[in-house]
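Quick one: structure for this chain?
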Amino acid sequence: MSKLSLLAAAGVGYVLGARAGRHRYDQIADTARRVAGNPKVQRVAHRAQDAAAQQATAAAGVAKDKVTAAASTAADKVRGHDA
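Got it. Here's what it folds into:
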């Protein structure tokens, strides 16, 4: 789990488990909205999203190649050709 995910989970856990009342919840929610709306945070989030999309595309290509090779090997074995 990344540090950001851990921090987000801790924040959500605190908010959901807090017994400090509605006023404290509103303070925390307002701060979270301001942080999420910060242009620097938005830029980093978009960069992270783009990086994840690129990694997913690369992983999909590798997975496709491996599945194709495995299927070809299996087909050769079924046909009786040892590779």
